[in-house]
């Protein structure tokens, strides 16, 4: 592998390259190339973990598409979840080809785009899932599936080398709350016609059995609501319109009013109205009304299932919401799963609620959540229908990918390739093989701006958060180079030390070393700053096993 090749150099054959979504949950971004023409499926974001202090969101680097120019023909969005569509708005200025999305996903992307300045040349088109999208080297059709958002679709890519099935997120739900039930006929036809490769969702490949139906959640919520006599708060993903409809129906059956709390929750309900998934006569009470309605007559649907610090549930729990608060014996239902990496923030929120004597209900207690991703038996069923020559597990961490591989083996798939982001696989002609390794990575979202994940400020934040910070300020007299006695020393994030003794010992050692410098050395900010740092490190060396970042401020007067 040369490491000097660009995507535009792959002019022959059928290729697959992931820029995000393999070995991780989120940031899904997949490229397919056929004889020099390319398409991208999905452009999603991911949640940042503790490696990125102060950062909430990450998006994949897509610099490699720049070499393609007009040869990138389209970006196709499989559905509207943020991990599949959320990066489009952030990266719109880098996108020179049309972006295609279903009606619901298009509305969600447009809402996100409103937060940014208009990007000249950016085109977002609505696709009809019942029709084909014909491009130069790709004949693309769609197979509606079932998932935890309206209008999910598997994508069939027909090429001169054979057909590919990109499943995206899916499950088998024969009685979904929204949309048509899962249909196997089109998948069986793919298998009968001959399928070259299946690129498939691995999220629940390590979970045995079959997933439950969304309608089962509605019945369970109806029962749960009847058990409690106080205020009920349900938190779920704001894009899960089916879940919100089920919560509303359960509330109505128990003669409770419903309030929506959270900006994204309200925005997505309006999108659902425009698409016909929520009736126009569906009326919610305001947050102000919810503040004085009797507790036993109220259900609040709110954001915050992942413990997000700016979410509605977080503000309600911390008593910082303008209208709403919780009282002992109120109930909070977490109708969601924990996204990997968010466990700590979710548990912190739950612990706070428990200390307030609020009762918590999770999927461990009752059927208040079902996954939008198929379990192991469903994945095996998909292989039995489609009979692919090649399996490429995606959308999962290593443990999910490995479990998916075992399922494909047991389904007698001839070839299975577990890849990494950046590894370019030549699917055809010939036996599938990796032909190049491209550098991949993430960009940090800071407000509306993007920065490299290894930017200096992130490295500084890591250093500060793990090793601590020392701030030392000195005033040096310009006439005689004497040190003002009002030396300031501040220690941050360094527990378990005697600060006063450390400060006194440092001042004594630094002054002793400083007096040994000649005038030229004392006039150099660099030399004096280095002396400050070395003196402090000597003092603290035996106190703690850390190397804090030391910031020196010199003032000459």
Fold topology:
Layout: E1 14-20, E2 29-34, E3 37-41, E4 46-47, E5 57-60, E6 72-76, H1 82-85, E7 99-101, H2 103-113, E8 124-126, E9 133-134, E10 139-144, E11 153-159, E12 162-168, H3 185-193, E13 195-201, H4 214-227, E14 232-235, H5 241-253, E15 257-261, H6 263-274, H7 287-292, E16 298-302, H8 312-317, E17 331-334, H9 343-355, E18 359-361, H10 376-386, E19 388-394, H11 398-410, E20 415-416, E21 423-428, E22 433-437, E23 442-446, E24 449-452, H12 456-467, E25 469-476, E26 488-492, H13 499-514, H14 519-522, H15 525-540, E27 549-556
Parallel strand pairs: 3-6, 6-7, 7-8, 12-13, 13-19, 14-16, 14-17, 15-16, 17-18, 19-20, 25-27
Antiparallel strand pairs: 1-2, 1-21, 2-3, 4-5, 5-23, 9-10, 10-11, 11-12, 21-22, 23-24, 25-26
Tally the helices: what do you get?
Answer: 15
Shape: globular
The tally of domains stands at: 3
What is the CATH-assigned architecture of the largest domain? 4-Layer Sandwich
How many angstroms separate the termini?
60 Å
Tally the beta strands. Answer: 27
CATH topology assignment of the largest domain: Metallo-beta-lactamase, Chain A
- According to CATH, the homologous superfamily of the largest domain is Ribonuclease Z/Hydroxyacylglutathione hydrolase-like
